[in-house]
Amino acid sequence: MAASALSPSKPVRDVCDYDLLFDCVHCGLCAEACPTYVVTRSEMDSPRGRIYLMKSLAEGRLELDDDAARHLDLCLGCRGCETACPSGVHYGRLIEGARSFIERNHRRGLADRIKRRAVSAIFPYPNRLQTILAPLKLVDRLGLRPALRAVMPRTIRDWLDLLPPLEPGSRPLANGATNSPQANAPTVVVHHGCVAQVLASSENLNSERLLAAAGYRVVRLEPTACCGALDLHSGNASRALDFARANVRALKNSGADAIVSAASGCSVAIAEYGDLLKDDPEFAADARAVSARVRDLSSILLDAPLKPKREFRSIVTYHDACHLAHGLGVREAPRKLLASIPGVTMVEMTESDLCCGSAGSYNLTEPAMARELARRKADNIVATGADYVVLANPGCEFQVAAELRRRQSKIKVVHLADFLAMASQ
Fold first, then answer.
1. Count of structural domains within the chain
2. Opening angle at CA 98, ends 96 and 103, nearest 5
3. What is the CATH number of the domain that holds 47?
4. Of 56, 75, 105, which residue constitutes the final position of a domain?
5. Do 124 and 238 form a contact (C-beta atoms < 8 A)?
6. Within a domain: 87
7. pTM score, two decimals?
8. Is 342 among the domain residues?
9. pLDDT digits (tens, 9 = 90+) for 9-46
């Protein structure tokens, strides 16, 4: 990181919301909550170090070189530091601003550019993702994925490992509502996301069926646009705003009283539309109204608990998806819901809220750090002796399941909605 002689008295570059940097008092309480600092023990890979780096870049005291970009790229955006911070630093906003600055002003290596552009061009668009995965569905149907994996280069092999089995009918569906909801029943819409509707459609369907059984009238969005989280995390602010506007319009028109997503990252993105679009005169008011209606599936279902038809005897541990725990502050509701199922024994894992390394597309762009965190998470899961690890985000599911498959572990990784579906059969 090359230093500059420019004065630090005021910002000379639009790196992030400069005023927010001064909320940090440099106490360091965030460090042990930061996955990358826990692994590297490098100050520049801690939230405090990255905030110092952003401030130095903004004030022109450092130049944006490969080293500076690397420390900022390595952040998972998990926001564990926000939970630990006594000063209320809005680190998520800061790192998203810095990522956008990097994309505008830094030229990455060729391989990194190709990888990031592939992710950006495919994952936010379900139709494109479905088209690309169509041959793999046939491969899975024929049981040939191990053979395909054996002949692929390492990067493609690692990406293949993250994909769940694509054969149809591999996940159970919850029973539908036994009674038609009342005409005056509250309405709910499940945002199907982009990747989730292709790779984890059962989680969306089970969410809708469980909500219907709880007495809600379920309305649908057709079609569902990407929430914009992938772009916010990777620095493509312009397209993230376009996705946010499309979703605000669609969610407003749905008339739903509550908005739910089976992907916690999507939930947080939608919950923050009010802030993201606060300066847009056409969308600001509607964005605030939409954000205020975001709810978590487990919190809603606690009001009308699932009544399983049979005892579901199993040992279950729960992984806190980062954005659910740190973005929405939801920790206890999923645990209470799981513990209410007859036969379920809950066992807490160590570091349940430490990031698993998925972080949207992070495990595709930063595979080494993602794999290290996956190993750490899997160690903690295995130590519980659980039959199931339940979580509330598809990305976490794919990441943790891939690592457990590598170990040939029998522990099953299941999304909360799918687990409740199994318990209600």
1. 2
2. 95
3. 1.10.1060.10
4. 105
5. no
6. yes
7. 0.92
8. yes
9. 688 999 999 999 999 999 999 999 999 999 999 999 99
